[in-house]
Automatic annotation (TrEMBL):
Signal sequence range: none
Protein name listed in UniProt: Bile acid:sodium symporter family protein
Chain segments annotated as transmembrane: 12-34, 40-59, 71-96, 102-123, 130-156, 162-185, 206-228, 234-259, 280-303
Keyword Cell inner membrane: no
One Pfam family from the record: SBF_like
Superkingdom in the source lineage: Bacteria
Keyword terms: Membrane, Transmembrane, Transmembrane helix
Stored Gene3D superfamilies: 1.20.1530.20
Amino acid sequence: MLGSLPARFRPDPYLVAMLGTVALAAVLPARGWVADGFDVLTKVAVGLLFFLYGARLSPQDALAGLRHWRLHLTVFASTFLLFPAFGLALAVLVPGVLAQPVYLGVLFLCTLPSTVQSSIAFTSTARGNVAAAICSASLSSLLGIVLTPLLVALLLGGAGGGVSAASVVDIVVQLLIPFLAGQLARRWIGGWMQRHGAALGRYDRGSILLIVYTAFSEGVVAGVWHRIAPQQLLVLFVVEAVLLAAVLLTTSLVSRWLGFGTADRITIVFCGSKKSMASGLPMANVLFAGPGLGLMVLPMMLFHQLQLLVCAAIARRLAARPAPESAAPQPATAE
């Protein structure tokens, strides 16, 4: 039945899989020694995930893209300064509108790096500066390994679990060392990774589903989900919609004010308005291990779907605009 629907009305298979994973954790959460096994498996999966991230990022591409330093600084300012500033401003909604644990999850969301794949894909669809998007999104992901834990320590402090000495060790062991190992191994496995890109993509998505199942299982077993009412989910959706709209509007206005061309402005808007669930879930698993992890990552998971829907609509609208005159002789290849 779903196959007969137009493509734009079909549910995202990955979203369906994620909702199914959450439902499975609600009905059959991991307990006891099974939960311990999933915990170990998740840590191994996170380490391998960041090894693959490191192996994918070409140092040559990153260095070549540094000539767009004004663009990258604008994106990084949006990702690591503007978002956290908006997150801190949302504190006025606690506790009347947002419960404290949910707000901490929103604040954690605001500390995350930008996405890579979707930022590049939307920039390409909207005919933005794809080369700059590749470099900016990749560098944001790299910087996030260091900046996100620092921002968590600065903004959340003890309230959200903070960054203890043990957390720092976990970050180094589970995230930084595998990432650097991937960078070193790139010269030997880069070609193999290109040939098996589809399989590695399935591993990425499978790892995220594993983290989601483990996190939500812990929350179910500890009774965390009794703390959030259904209406809080609706309120959270509205708050995050306003947050996304504010960032989209700010990046659009500031990039125009700074004198960037159309293609660069598109790149800034798409790269500067995203938050990476692929990086955020593994980081949360390291920083906030425990029964409260599910509530910490819930705002991120909701924002992830929201940003995909909104940015896809914006990208399609920008793609439909008339092509520049310089591209007029070859309209068939403009996309």
